[in-house]
């Protein structure tokens, strides 16, 4: 289905926890993290934590092993594979970081299902330590959105994606998320789009309190089974609608006059 783009958050939408907290806790650095958190922005804390863990002898391999143990929401991987197999374009928009996301998606065998990952830069520097930077460099300029954290406005990312899709002729978007940061992009969706908030999580509360602001069709999910069923049902319904439209277009396709057979007059 070339006209459908599915956009996934990552933490608590593909994996079943917050990846930053998972790495910090599993590597035994929770106390230091809690001490630093009140003193600087989240991204800066995580970058500082990676430096401290490196100084303690933790390696990139150690971080990768922790990430590979991260619990996944049941049925999400089959749902992603099925959506990809049905021809949807899949993208990630996440406030985690590129290194974490790519490590986990590769481990799950679904990295190739995604055409684009939008997240905070995460890379290994020349000293072999992981560096984590903000998506929007809030040190030099603000993204100007009061709904989102200073390092990332997902709404701006969705607007950029929408602009590129319009040029490609793609029309429908499905957005899945759980956190407060997923509310802003939900407001950017159009009436022909769909938003799938995780029930009883921050974005679910915000959407329910501001339903008049959300133009997209809302489908909440509580677990992986419901997630898979709803996502694939939306995709199949949209596919049927597009096939019907294509059928109607074919029936009423105009024929150029030069292609019509010439009528030869019959002599009397």
From TrEMBL:
Keywords: Hydrolase, Magnesium, Metal-binding
Annotated transmembrane regions: none
Pfam families tied to this protein: Put_Phosphatase
Residue positions of the active site: 9 (nucleophile), 11 (proton donor)
Coiled-coil residue windows: none
Cofactor(s) required for function per UniProt: Mg(2+)
Name this polypeptide is given: Inorganic pyrophosphatase 1-like
Origin species: Nicotiana tabacum
